[in-house]
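Example record for the data management plan.
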Amino acid sequence: MLCVATLTSAMASQIRIKDLVEFDGVRGNDLVGYGLVVGLNGTGDGLRNAPFTEEIMSNILERLGVNVAGEQFRPKNVAAVFVTASLPPFSRAGGQIDVTVSAIGDAQSLLGGTLVMTPLNAADGQIYAVAQGTIIAGGAVAEGDGAKVTQGVPTAGVIPSGARVEREIAFELGALDSLRLALREPDFTTAGRIETAINRNFGRSVAVMLDSGTVRLDISGTRMASPAHALARIENLLVQPERKARVVVDQRSGTIVMGQDVRISRIAVSQGNLTLRVKEAPLAVQPNPFAQAETVVVPRTEVDIDEEPGIGLAEVPPGTTLAEVIAGLNALGVAPRDMIDILKSIKAAGALHAEFVVR
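Corresponding structural encoding:
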């Protein structure tokens, strides 16, 4: 049976501006690096299948003064990995951030491994942090001669506070005269309410809605000591966000989520199931004893058509909400797949006035 969740007006609440928008410039930056994990218990890369592991290991050893040119080594306790992290806004040199380590070769597990010092680069190619430390992997592997069990993902893990910031992002918030507020879900009504809430708080016109997704804040008009003070003053202001009428259907779990503004027009619905079964039961016919003949296979086919009783022609009067329609279909025992097909048909008929999303 489908589970239906409806957002009603009683459940609607005001949301802080900081939870509705992103402040221009106040964002993180993605970092990535390529490194080596050592200390694995025989679960590392097979160097024959992952030659890049041998290459990076040779480079590291040569930088440490160990000449391995022409040497043949096949250790199973090392693995090549990608290291990813997000540099938070206003991070300063010396600060620490979390990193995620993921194997890129055929390593079986990173459990117990240690990441060797790995530079982390941003999109501009500059090094902003250096990662190193012991990996905490979220999985386990147990195997024997005839069976193997894997729980979780042992080829990926994290290093809490595993990277140290070495370079700061060149961004001065205090030098800005204006700041843009970017809505996470653009909507003209929500943007207008944010503009009104900010102007009401300051008692003057300091915010201007530029479009459905942007509100510009005039820092000089706020008479605050710095843009940071202005943001701290407005980010906790409460605003009632507006949402599009939307119906989201998850076919796998049979869940329907809809907003309070979903409307359905007058429509008639009829649905039924037709099942066609074809069964082959060939029969082998043997010739009589001492007869000059061959065995013949005689085809036998059974055909059956079943038409299960479905929903008869039912008219949905105007003013009926979609939640009431689904509740009625649930009461009739309509299967989830049939329910989704009915909703698709109602949308195709133009009677469902909402965005329809199927996952």
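Summary line stored alongside the record: Helices lie at 51-63, 188-202, 219-222, 227-234, 322-331, 336-348.
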